[in-house]
Amino acid sequence: MSQSPSREAILFCRYILSSLDRLVHCLDGLDETQLNWHPPVPHANSLYALVAHTLGNAEENLLWTLFDQPSQRNREQEFLMEGSSTDTLILRWNGLREQLQQALLSLSSQDLAREHLHPRRGSITGLDILIVVARHAAEHLGQAELTRDLALAATPQ
């Protein structure tokens, strides 16, 4: 990528990282049962799976697709993930956060206008990729906040 970051890239960086910070924060203080608890509705996901999936989405889009690299992601596996603690996801986020910030702050206006081949959406611009990631992170943040409340209510303290 090239030149100084565009104003849009700076704003998206702030918004995306803030949403992902808050998402990971939803894991704070939860035990294994609460991390892996599923709401009692079809296709609902645990907090552990939601965080793993949302981080996977951000990584795929912002580090691979935006830079025209083939995706190594196994999206379906993310929804099956469970964990005994938050350690793995927090370590992953701590390393990924810095990479995402560097990638986002390297994007110029020309980079945002350029087309990229998305693994599920076809040809989209760099700006479209940022919108997809921001929207996706915000959707799953809301879902995670609600799932956390429900998990805490469903498990004895």
Automatic annotation (TrEMBL):
Record-given protein name: DinB-like domain-containing protein
One Pfam family hit: DinB_2
Protein origin, superkingdom: Bacteria
Domain DinB-like, chain residue ranges per copy: 20-144
Lineage: Bacteria, Bacillati, Chloroflexota, Ktedonobacteria, Ktedonobacterales
Record InterPro entries: DinB-like, DinB/YfiT-like
